[in-house]
Design a protein that fits this description.
Blueprint: H1 3-20, H2 23-36, H3 40-65, H4 69-76, H5 80-111, H6 115-131, H7 135-161, H8 165-173, H9 180-191, H10 195-205, H11 214-244, H12 254-292, H13 299-303, H14 305-323, H15 327-351, H16 355-358, H17 365-393
Helix pairs in contact: 1-7, 1-10, 1-11, 1-12, 2-9, 2-11, 2-12, 3-8, 3-9, 3-10, 3-11, 3-15, 3-17, 4-5, 4-15, 5-6, 5-12, 5-14, 5-15, 6-12, 6-14, 7-11, 7-12, 10-12, 11-12, 12-14, 15-17
């Protein structure tokens, strides 16, 4: 394999993984570990299996059809691609406001500046990536560097917290508690909304597509889930070490509390670095992927792709600096986001068996069955979350 191809495949994997590892990822992992203790390992295991099933199906079908998800959806049912693109862009924009807020929090911890000033600085950094000529290559390098940094620092904190590894392993396979909502939340946070398409669309942009590249595309899709899962596992173990010691985690900022309890003031500063890295890479991934969902609708949009990405980041940053995080919108969009995966994966599975989209390619039956099970399970749980979430917003 060419070094350039290897770099693109790794870049796509890290783009997807770091898009998943955002402020919500850090908070969810520490909060659920606090609630479920060692049994959260089982939740992670199940979510990884579901994530791989969804990711492999979607990336392979994008690669073999050589089309982006919205165009595939329009081929399956005219107009559906526009609906999917609308859901993705609105969800991406809302969550990007949260990502910018997380970046502001990270700089606040590191340098003591206000979250608003930190958000402004982080927005400028993200915009800067897309202003250079080789924006795609710089984006790949940026997400890889910060991805390795996050994982390395979290491993250090995990060793400091000294978790009971044996109990964690045991409860991963024999849980005391099974929390379905936690599973859905983790799956939605790892492959929900725009996230699962980040790497697949990146590979298309880099020209890595077609049946001749399917093996590498599949490996890259699994690597992406692997990278995000490694981060999740080490953060779970770091938190479990604190929980097992009976130390009190601050509910106002669980991940910061875990890092501080594990490694003192150094740990708190490490949290600042991890939070900023997680947030700013998610900002980059959300902006790039959201725009990739609309740029094929018009030659004008295609021509001004970089300007659209920059505008996406500027709008997210401006809303956070002026308004703050719109909690109700984030919760509502989060509920809707849970429904995007079954819709998008369902469309992809139908497309995989349409000759006008994939030619004479034969999608593996086991992948179709695996994907169909995920569609049914996630549709049910996503609908349950949405129905129960909306009344709470207005109560």
């Amino acid at each position: 394999m060419k070094n350039s191809n290897r770099s693109v495949l790794l870049g796509a994997a890290f783009l997807m993984a770091t898009s998943a590892i955002g402020p919500g990822f850090l908070t969810q992992t520490t909060t659920f570990t606090q609630t479920l203790a060692a049994s959260f390992g089982f939740v992670i295991l199940v979510s990884i299996i579901i994530d791989i099933g969804a990711q492999m199906n979607i990336w392979r079908i994008i690669a073999v059809s050589e089309k982006r998800a919205q165009d595939i959806a329009n081929d399956v049912f005219p107009g559906l691609g526009y609906v999917l693109a609308f859901l993705i862009v609105m969800g991406g924009l809302a969550f990007n406001i949260g990502n910018i807020g997380g970046a502001g929090l990270g700089t606040n911890v590191l340098f003591g500046v206000s979250p608003e000033m930190g958000a402004l600085f982080s927005g400028i950094v993200a915009v800067g990536i897309f202003l250079v000529k080789e924006a795609g290559r710089l984006m790949d390098r940026f997400t890889q560097l910060l991805g390795f940094l996050m994982i390395g620092l979290t491993i250090f904190v995990m060793f400091q917290s000294q978790p009971p590894i044996g109990e964690a392993i045991t409860r991963t396979f024999i849980p005391e508690t099974i929390d379905l909502l936690a599973i859905v939340t983790l799956v939605g946070g790892t492959v929900g909304g725009y996230i699962t398409f980040a790497g697949g669309h990146r590979l298309l942009d880099a020209g890595l597509k077609g049946r001749e590249n399917l093996g590498e595309v599949t490996k890259s899709s699994i690597s992406a889930i692997g990278i995000a899962s490694i981060m999740r596992i080490f953060l779970f173990l770091a938190t479990f070490g604190i929980v097992a010691q009976g130390l009190q985690i601050d509910p106002s900022n669980p991940p910061a509390s875990v890092f501080q309890l594990a490694a003192g003031n150094v740990g708190y500063k490490i949290f600042g670095v991890v939070m900023w890295a997680a947030a700013v890479t998610s900002v980059v991934g959300a902006a790039y992927t959201s725009v990739s969902f609309i740029k094929t609708f018009s030659p004008v949009l295609q021509k001004y792709e970089k300007l659209l990405i920059v505008s996406f980041i500027v709008i997210s940053t401006t809303v956070f600096v002026i308004v703050g995080q719109p909690v109700m919108i984030l919760i509502l969009v989060g509920s809707v986001n849970g429904l995007i995966l079954p819709i998008s994966l369902g469309v992809m599975l139908i497309a995989a068996h349409k000759a006008k989209i994939v030619g004479d390619y034969k999608h593996p039956i086991w992948m179709t069955v695996f994907g169909a099970i995920i569609v049914v399970v996630m549709a049910y749980m996503g609908g349950y979350t949405l129905i129960n979430g909306i009344p709470q917003l207005f109560s």
